[in-house]
Design a protein that fits this description.
Blueprint lengths: L7 E4 L3 H12 L4 E5 L12 E4 L5 H9 L3 E4 L6 H10 L6 H7 L2 H10 L7 E4 L2 H5 L7 E5 L9 E4 L16 E5 L3 E13 L2 E4 L3 E6 L2 E7 L5 H17 L4 E10 L4 E7 L9 H4 L4 H9 L12 E8 L2 H6 L7 E5 L10 E9 L1
Parallel strand pairs: 1-2, 1-4, 2-3
Antiparallel strand pairs: 5-8, 6-7, 6-8, 9-10, 9-11, 9-13, 11-12, 12-15, 13-14, 15-17, 16-17
């Protein structure tokens, strides 16, 4: 265990930053958050909040001077900014990992080199590339970088739909072949050092319009998929030399074939239920790993369901009474927007 607890810098001030700061406070770790959102909800949970664009040298230098180690709540931070900070303070996980997972094409190549299965895919730089990849239709066209919760994604069912697409091909895309989806699961894993992991059991997820609606444990999957999903998550985190908590998202097709969908190099929405269902949450384990604190043996307390609260749904929940087995988390976002994640509810099950 480190002799002196560091001051932890967190890049990003959304709900994940809030939960990281809350977990750090439990461990008596001071947190400083920098965010380009002046109304970021995480400012209510950290010890100091810096409002700044990420390319503001003066504010970035202030952030560097006041922290000892830095982590982040989202992966699409400009790589150059992370590298700049990393020259002065260690950024954990390593910024080079983001260079892989920020780009969906590079990410899938990385996974396939490990002989881990993904859906079939192709790089798309112009409309003609779609016409030359009829074998990948029906498919989903995604921006190579950025985009989450369905943003920057286009479903293409047949070649006849290509001519009608209103897409800016100044950007690059990846076309992924759709599978007949049976189920989606995720693995939340914290890696502390070589071959040293804390792994949460597989979580079953339901999405609508590419937005996570709810998650539950246990996942209704067979032992082969249970074991394989954990094994692949360990292999991926080891190959990346990852420190901290990451999420591996999976598809299961109608034939019970497992595919890696994406890697999120951070704490993840599907892992929110770990706050109440385990003795150590994904957030606390991430803080323990990046700050070099002791590991605590992970224990599952109970089964659970997590429900995302989107947009105006939050109004009903703010006026609701809850049972002893229900835990409501309001992200305290000032603006209510359609489909925006405003909070979540975890229900503990026997």
């Amino acid at each position: 265990m480190a002799s002196l607890k560091p001051t932890l810098g967190i890049i990003g001030g959304g709900q994940l930053g809030s939960m990281l700061a809350s977990a750090a406070k439990k461990l008596n770790i001071k947190t400083i958050i920098i965010s380009d959102d002046e109304q970021a909800p995480a400012k209510k949970f950290c010890d100091k909040f810096i409002f700044s664009n990420y390319n503001n040298d003066e504010k970035i230098n202030e952030f560097i001077k006041e922290t000892n180690v830095v982590t982040f709540e989202f992966e699409n931070i400009p790589f150059e900014i992370l590298k700049k900070i990393n020259k002065k303070n260690p950024v954990i996980p390593d910024p080079d990992i983001n260079k892989i997972v920020q780009n969906r094409f590079e990410e899938k190549k990385f996974i396939n080199k490990m002989r881990i299965k993904t859906t079939k895919y192709s790089l798309v730089e112009k409309k003609e590339d779609l016409l030359n990849n009829k074998n990948l239709l029906p498919g989903i066209l995604k921006t190579l970088t950025l985009g989450y919760d369905g943003k920057g994604q286009y479903k293409i069912n047949s070649i006849g739909e290509v001519s009608d697409l209103d897409i800016n091909f100044n950007n690059k895309y990846i076309l992924e072949k759709k599978i007949i989806l049976k189920k989606e699961i995720s693995i939340i894993i914290t890696r502390f050092k070589k071959n040293s992991f804390q792994v949460y059991e597989p979580i079953e997820n339901i999405h609508e319009d590419q937005i996570l609606q709810n998650s539950k444990i246990p996942a209704e999957i067979d032992k082969k998929i249970y074991d394989q999903s954990i094994s692949w998550a360990k292999e991926i985190s080891e190959k990346l030399n990852f420190i901290g908590t990451l999420c591996v998202e999976y598809f299961i097709d109608k034939n019970d074939v497992l595919y890696v969908n994406e890697i999120a190099p951070r704490v993840h929405n599907s892992g929110h239920l770990t706050i109440n269902a385990y003795n150590i949450s994904q957030f606390e384990n991430h803080i323990r790993a990046v700050c070099q604190l002791d590991q605590v043996q992970l224990k599952k307390i109970t089964n659970a369901v997590m429900i995302n609260i989107l947009g105006k749904q939050i109004i009903k929940y703010r006026n609701k009474k809850f049972s002893d087995n229900e835990f409501f988390y309001d992200y305290l976002k000032e603006k209510i927007k359609d489909k925006r994640k405003m909070g979540h509810l975890t229900i503990l099950k026997k």
